[in-house]
Amino acid sequence: MVVLSKGELEQIALPAVQRAAPPLAAVTEVDLSTATAAGGGAGRAAAARAVARACEEHGFFKVTGHGVPAPLLARVEAAAAAFFALQQQDKEKAGGPFGYASKRIGCNGDLGFVEYLLLGVNAAGAAAPSAEASPCCLREVLDEYIAAVRRMTCTVLELMAEGLGLDDAGVFARLVLDGDSDSMLRVNHYPPRPEPEEVPKHGGHSRRLTGFGEHTDPQIISVLRSNAVSGLEISLRDGTWVAVPPDASSFFVNVGDALQVLTNGRFRSVRHRVMVSSARPRVSVIFFGGPPPRERLAPLPGLVDREGGRRRYREFTWREYKTSAYRTKLADNRLGYFETAAASS
């Protein structure tokens, strides 16, 4: 694995954070095998209720029994490790609007102790090519991974709709499966924490560096898997930060901003971050399921009716949201611009 050089580290003005790691999170676990078993029935209904409850409480939960083969997960991890171990100039050949980048997150000054590969996902469920394609061995395994994870993601989205009691169980999944869906895959590599003398000085040496600053995900849903290295943290409703125990065999699901809007705020987009404190590298792969750019997003009528007609968000297109979001910093409340007066009542 590649470790950023001391010179590169000194260019990153990392924000100060508490020295002590937060307490461990109690993460809701949903076994998808009970929801997809022949006959469905009570097992699927229970899974749908568990998913909805987790989305309402924290906007975050863990999925087991997902059916994505363990050998495929191992191949993805190995291919990602091989890519990030390339020479810097070779990694940068995968540049362009989608491709390789390091340290800089977005275009508004956010920085982190991370390098990453960002790929668009086409209608067939494969990684759309960037200007300079990433290595074939990585692209091939990522295409297989995307197809498997997108299928699993749609099952989760159906359970969300069922848990909400919606008549149309495919209302969320169709947006991700649409031929123009704005979905993406991100592969993050967080190098091992630097030795104390290499840590930028901001009021003392800290062993906890900001890998990826606090934020919510813009899309409908984010489905993440990482190697067995800690670092992911989520914020609870009261603002308390908790650490997510690593689990290399499971997937973690985040509610995104778009889903918060569609559910009229009933499901909450989870605020999360990644802190670097391990002597081992962390690799995470995230599938972001997004709607088509021209899709008009607004609270679903059935959910608005349950709140006496109160719409917490105005209607807007996904393209309009992205245009607005790209002008903000990571930690900003990007949905604030689209809230109605009912959102604060």
TrEMBL record:
Matching InterPro entries: DIOX_N, IPNS-like_FE2OG_OXY, IPNS-like_sf, Iron_ascorbate_oxido_reductase, Oxoglu/Fe-dep_dioxygenase_dom
Ranges where the Fe2OG dioxygenase domain occurs: 180-291
Cofactor(s), by name: L-ascorbate
Gene Ontology MF term list: metal ion binding; oxidoreductase activity
Comp. bias regions, Basic and acidic residues: 192-201
Residues covered by region (Disordered): 191-213
This protein's UniProt keywords: Iron, Metal-binding, Oxidoreductase
Annotated PROSITE patterns: FE2OG_OXY
Pfam families registered for this protein in UniProt: 2OG-FeII_Oxy, DIOX_N
Family from the record: Belongs to the iron/ascorbate-dependent oxidoreductase family.
Designated name of the protein: Fe2OG dioxygenase domain-containing protein
Native source species: Urochloa decumbens
